[in-house]
Amino acid sequence: MSILIILFCIGLLVLLITKLKLNAFLAFLLIAILAGLLLGIEPAKITGSIQKGMGDMLGSLIIVVACGAMLGKLTADSGAAQQIASGLMKLFGERYIQWALMITGFIIGIPLFYNVGFVLVIPLIFSVAAKYKLPVVYVGLPMLAALSVTHGFLPPHPSPAALVAAFHADMGKTLMYGVLIAIPTVILAGPVFSRTLKKIKAPMLQTFKSEALPDDQLPSLSISIFSSLLPVILLALTTFLGGAVKEAGPLKTFISFISDPAIVMILALAVATYTLGLRMHMGMKRIMDIYGDAVKDIAMLLLIMGGAGSLKQILLDSGVSAEIGQILNGLDVHPLVLGWAMACLIRVCVGSATVAGLTAVGIIMPVMSRPDVNPNLMVLSIGAGSLMFSHVNDAGFWLFKEYFGLSIKDTIRSWSLMETIVAIAGLGGVMVLNAFVS
């Protein structure tokens, strides 16, 4: 009976978000309350479970996500993203222009949230397509594939960062594994797949041409790349040092301190504040205004994460997670595939990759106690599944369709299939890594 209640609640969650257009945060709260009542939790204890779930989810995430948003906003507003794009295009030349755009998307996609990155790179895509007289979808898809993969796979992006916290995974290892999987995935979904899209015609819209900053106001290419990738560099470095230093002592304690994802993000943001802000003669007030705007942009996203954490806690406190675990453990399917499939199903129904990933956590949590489940790979498996087949219920689908001026058929042919390739290739990469990672 408990399983039927959960299925009913998840179905109602999908209905509230997709059909009734209810805000996802409010939908999660209402479903958490309803699930608690139906599952027999005392009404007086339901609010306690909701508050605990929200606190546990956000407690380890707010610093990482907020600092990540600030770094991304500064990367965009300082001209660092513009410098990375123009520098890499000069380096690769016309023949390898797709690869230049793909690498640019990957680098700036690490600090930038997807929607911000999308709007930022659109003028560049149209400008490059016009300059070299190439089909705009063919040129742009590799870059957008890179943005999508970093959004779904790599911390400190909100969904993978939340999954790391929920599964008590290691953010540094998850990031390194994620990069290993992301590179072939982006190549397959980007330059390789886009070869089949040369015949898709899209209007060369002038609307999206933006005013670029003068070259003398841009940070250097090396500083731009260094500042954008600093969270990755620090996480990788501290993860390596943590494994290299075995003996307990002051050095081990210090490494453990600076390897905490929150400390890493604070350090990265502090460095970028100087390299991309103060060093470029940007006033502190202007920098702080940028940071304030960045936090406003992610406020609702943080609330959605908290709401998802509340639903997860209700499942745990009611004991239904144990029942789900018994059922899932009885299935002859690898847990990593189960996590991926759950995220795929919710993604196709709800549309939002973030909601899909966070909702899958509460369902798949019971199998995490199995010895053959690597929590770092589970983060990536669910992250890959959360990108499966974006279609008409996903805001990203319409963003791509309207900016490129495509029909629904051509949007499915390009965008939706690209996302599907990312999801399947991501799972393939996870399973290959699982064969080598204990």
TrEMBL record:
It is a multi-pass membrane protein. The chain crosses the membrane at residues 26-46, 58-76, 96-129, 136-154, 174-197, 218-242, 254-277, 298-316, 336-365, 377-400, 420-437. It is found in: Cell membrane. Keywords: Cell membrane, Membrane, Transmembrane, Transmembrane helix, Transport. Its main location: membrane. Pfam families: GntP_permease. Belongs to the GntP permease family. This is Gluconate transporter. The lineage of its organism: Bacteria, Pseudomonadati, Bacteroidota, Cytophagia, Cytophagales.
